[in-house]
Specification:
2 copies of one chain form a homodimer. The first copy, chain A, is of the alpha+beta class. Helix content of chain A is 43%, strand content 21%. Chain A is built from 9 helices and 10 strands. Chain A is elongated, with a radius of gyration of 19 Å. Chain A binds a DNA duplex through helix 8.
Chain lengths: 237, 237
DNA sequence: CCTTAAACATGATTTTTGTCATGTTTTATT
DNA sequence: AATAAAACATGACAAAAATCATGTTTAAGG
């Protein structure tokens, strides 16, 4: 029993749009955008775009979760950003008119639209409000990146690990139990975000588990003692 | 014998402007901008804006060098960005409509203009090209920040220190001898950029000095063996 | 369902880096 | 010029974290 193929609803009816930079577009602009966008389905683990490729459009996540990673030294992967429904991805290289410096890979099955590059630039130019939404989005990402820099520079691995769990909670939210972080990452992926070795990551999660800060079952991480986790992250109030 | 007070030349004649995001403005726009900007002189070590303050305008560095720093944990300073002539500073908080998350402090005597906040937003809205220049600038800063994240996550202190010297060279250039990095930072400031302790920073610079990679005299750092420095930074080709 | 690879886990060891201590040099200020 | 305060420097030690090794569990693919 397969799911029926959904109607191609178009940008008008797209509920995700309202939580994206495109919330400022209206009426005819949406009809037009619809003509320059296409929507694709991705299986977990698939590349949306890859390092070194040339951008041909802007990606907008409809559903599913995406990691933005770059290959560091000795091929070690670094997770730079995490995206979810409503987020645009692949904008940095597009705007700078460069090849991708990072890759986007789905963390679960996803549906992602592509908006044609030339059209995107045109509508940005004609709609200052849209461009300003983009400016604000990049500014936010810059803030997040700079917070990460401070953390990497000044905190130890234990603190960063606790911080990362809080970051995942803030980014992807919790399941119905209000405790379980709503994303499945391997220990290696968490390590690639935290900036540590996989072993250290595993060890620290085990420690947090023993300390009753979290509860582990498979890839699921349940935050059982939020105040203690915040304290472990050493976050100022 | 004092220097004569220079004519208030205005944005028309400003040569720095051509290397800034404002290079896209023309004619009347420059006359208008002149009415909404003021220029200030700063002594070395002065604050241009301070963490937690409210932005009232956009700063544009005329001459002099500026560090953008934030206070991390236990009050430890983190250098996030370095600015020079033609760079805009204080844009992140302004655009996000937030209080400053970082401070800007001059590294030497400087002359810096402020462009009124409301006017800046108005001219951005009416001049897509200007806003796009801003988008590109922030995108670049994001790229720089993310490169720094990879470095902090994956490289050891020695490699990061070598990388930092190359970064300073790229940012501020070299003196006439084509070897001396054109900026004076204390060892502590370098450490606050690299993400290490002051002692480790001092030690590594001494080592590089012994290894004939650099030559030290006071705060001046001369790169005497660039290939070896690049190799020490472990940068891929 | 079985097989294989990936992911998870943990101990032992080594390397890296921070911290503490102490002394010297440079710079700024009266 | 004298004095104080930064800034620079280096050794000794401790702490943190990576690496190596090895084994178990879980998940994926034929």
């Amino acid at each position: 029993m397969k799911k029926p193929i959904p109607f191609e609803t178009g940008c008008h009816q797209c509920t995700v749009r309202m939580h994206s930079v495109f919330n400022v577009l209206q009426g005819d602009q949406l009809v037009e955008m619809n003509m320059y966008k296409s929507c694709n389905v991705y299986k977990k683990g698939q590349y949306v775009f890859a390092e070194n490729g040339l951008p041909t459009g802007l990606f907008c996540v409809n559903s599913g979760k995406v990691k933005i990673t770059t290959t560091g030294y000795d091929g070690k992967e670094q997770i730079l950003r995490l995206a979810k429904s409503g987020d645009i991805v692949g904008y940095r290289a597009l705007i700078s008119n460069e090849r991708y410096a990072s890759s986007a890979v789905t963390l679960e099955d996803a549906s992602i639209c592509v908006i044609d590059k030339d059209y995107f630039f045109k509508v940005m130019e004609s709609t200052p409000k849209l461009m300003f939404e983009v400016v604000k989005k990049i500014s936010q990402d810059l803030k997040t990146a700079e917070d990460h820099i401070v953390s990497l520079s000044q905190k130890n691995v234990r603190e960063r690990m606790a911080e990362a769990l809080l970051f995942l909670k803030a980014t992807y939210g919790l399941e119905e139990d209000l405790q379980t972080i709503q994303v499945n990452l391997t220990r290696e992926e968490i390590a690639d975000y935290v900036g540590t070795s996989t072993e250290s990551c595993i060890r620290l999660l085990s420690e947090f588990n023993q300390d009753k800060i979290i509860a582990l079952s498979g890839k699921k991480i349940k935050i059982t003692n939020l105040p203690l986790l915040i304290q472990t992250a050493n976050i100022e109030d």
